[in-house]
Write a structure and sequence with these properties.
single chain; eight-stranded antiparallel sheet; 468 residues; binds (2R)-2-hydroxypentanedioic acid; 21% strand; binds zinc ion; binds flavin-adenine dinucleotide; five-stranded antiparallel sheet
Length: 468
């Protein structure tokens, strides 16, 4: 072992250190298997004091640190380079719920808490923690904060940033910032937590957070509506928002090709409607009164949209099991794509009013250049966020198709720019989009980011090579 690793071992003990290649492998490769790193060691501190001790050693020795939570990130942000010199700092042993205050509607959790466990802890206290995403069984709250994850509840509850009230962070010199305040109002200068949220580990290590809770709705009910086009999906959104207001907690669109992929790779899946249609919308209503009330709300939205010829067919869940089955159709798309083979992912947002136009214009451009590709378009339509993914033609091996990736991405991202959109709506930049963002972000914004980085991490040891 190197001298640095020896010194770190003295801080975290044997339980907090992995150095042999087989043990490090799950931490070294990302979920999509696009990035393979080679860490000097995987370090798993069990407390904020241990994290601070590790970072101090790294600062003294100018050793790079790559924080990692559940390793479900899609941009390679939590993966080291292949130099064998970087420390991978996994927060997974820091997984305690420190406090729940149901009256203040807050939960204080350590960074390594798995998102689904935070949801369960809130539920046990009769509260809702509304952050929800397909990877919630593995993703950690520290990772969610660091990527400012979105997910399926943004429409009503906002992104992870909007759910955070306070943070505890180990800074790049090993000092601990205790900002664990549970206040909804605090105008005492710069709101420092927002620097670390969405920073993807480039400014410090988040070790704990105070997160907002909400009253648990009496019922959550879903329906799936078939529509002929993204235009009609947007018209349905307008009806749902007008009729249901804040009770509308989910509005997701997926194309029939997405559904085909889920049916193919999850053979137990049943299609929700007897006849296939071009697009589907999953609507979720959360009602403070009762399931009956949720049902009448969702039925009323669908009835108006059917009468207007917008919805072609629809089904409403009859029970909780069916609600979960409907969500699984939507949330299994990413996993189904992984089974189908590599594809080119784009996580984009454009103004909701222009989303249909964006899809039509970009599809047309892609088809001109690559006539046989298969579009895997789905996403959080209520947020203007599309997962505009492109899979190769059936007969072309995915690794051969991936040679077209850069050209395809150029078409998509240039189109996003023309629509005043963002090339990373919710997944972050990581290493995947670090260069790409230079083409699209104004030079002054990049410069301000560099100044923030230099101020908070002057030695450049925090997750180098990511974001900027
Ligand atoms: P990791 O992958 O471990 O790390 C992500 C980034 O955060 C890295 O840059 C890492 O260095 C940094 N980091 C992690 N922990 C810390 C910390 N404590 N302090 C400082 N930096 C840290 N994302 C969405 O936004 N919406 C979705 O709907 C969604 N669905 C998904 C579905 C699937 C099936 C999968 C595989 C991923 C999905 N994602 C989604 C992406 C991913 O789950 C999220 O980005 C998630 O927030 C990452 O959490 P993690 O703990 O796995 O982070
Ligand atoms: C989702 O919304 C995730 O399911 C993953 O953000 C998106 O697979 C993707 O591109
Ligand atoms: Zn998403």
């Amino acid at each position: 072992m190197s001298v640095i690793v020896d010194r770190i071992a003295a801080v975290v003990g044997a339980a907090g250190l992995v150095t042999e290649a087989a043990g490090m492998e799950p931490y070294a490769i990302d979920w999509r298997k696009r990035y393979a790193g080679r860490p000097l060691a995987v370090v798993r501190p069990a407390s904020v004091r241990e994290v601070a001790g590790v970072i101090k050693i790294c600062a003294e020795t100018r050793t790079a640190v790559v924080p990692q939570g559940g390793n479900t990130g899609l941009q390679g942000g939590g993966i080291t380079d292949a130099s064998g010199t970087q420390i991978l700092l996994s927060t997974t042993r820091m997984n305690r719920v420190r406090a729940i205050d149901p009256v203040n509607n807050t939960i204080t959790v350590e960074a390594g808490c798995v998102l689904a466990e935070v949801q369960r802890a809130a539920e046990a206290a009769g509260r809702l923690f509304p952050l929800s995403l397909g990877a919630e069984g593995s993703a950690n709250i520290g990772g969610n904060l660091s990527t400012n994850a979105g997910g399926t509840g943004v429409l009503r509850y906002g992104n992870t940033r909007d759910l955070a009230l306070g943070l505890e962070v180990v800074l790049a010199d090993g000092e601990v910032w205790d900002g664990l305040r549970g206040l909804r109002k605090d105008n005492t200068g710069y709101d420092l937590k927002h620097l670390f949220i969405g920073a993807e580990g480039t400014l410090g290590v988040i070790t704990a957070a105070v997160m907002k809770l909400y009253p648990m709705p009496a019922a959550r009910l879903t329906g799936i509506a078939a529509v002929g086009s993204p235009e009609d999906a947007i018209r349905l959104l307008e009806i749902a928002q007008r009729q249901s207001g804040d009770a509308l907690t989910g509005f997701e669109m997926f194309s029939d090709f997405c559904l085909s992929l889920v049916v193919k790779h999850f053979p137990a899946t049943r299609t929700p409607l007897r006849v296939r249609h071009p697009q589907y919308v999953l609507i979720e209503i959360s009602d403070a009164r009762s399931e009956e009330s949720a049902r009448s709300e969702i039925e009323s939205v669908l009835a108006e949209a059917m009468e207007a010829g917008i919805v072609l067919d629809a089904v409403v869940a009859q029970n909780l099991a069916q609600v979960e089955t409907m969500w699984a159709l939507r949330e299994n798309i990413t996993e189904a794509q992984r089974h189908e083979g590599q594809n080119v992912k784009h996580d984009v947002s454009v103004p909701i009013s222009r989303i249909a136009e964006f899809i039509a214009a970009t599809d047309a451009e892609i088809r001109r250049a690559h006539p046989d590709v298969r579009m895997v378009t789905f996403g959080h339509l209520g947020d203007g966020n599309l997962h505009y993914n492109v899979a190769g033609p059936q007969e072309v091996p995915p690794d051969v198709f991936m040679r077209e990736a850069a050209g395809l991405t150029r078409i998509v991202h240039d189109s996003v720019a023309r629509f005043n959109g963002s090339i990373s709506a919710e997944h972050g930049l990581g290493q995947a989009k670090r260069e790409e963002i230079r083409r699209y972000k104004p030079a002054l914004e990049l410069e301000l980011m560099r100044r923030v980085k230099a101020a908070l991490d002057p030695l450049g040891i925090m997750n180098p090579g990511k974001v900027i």
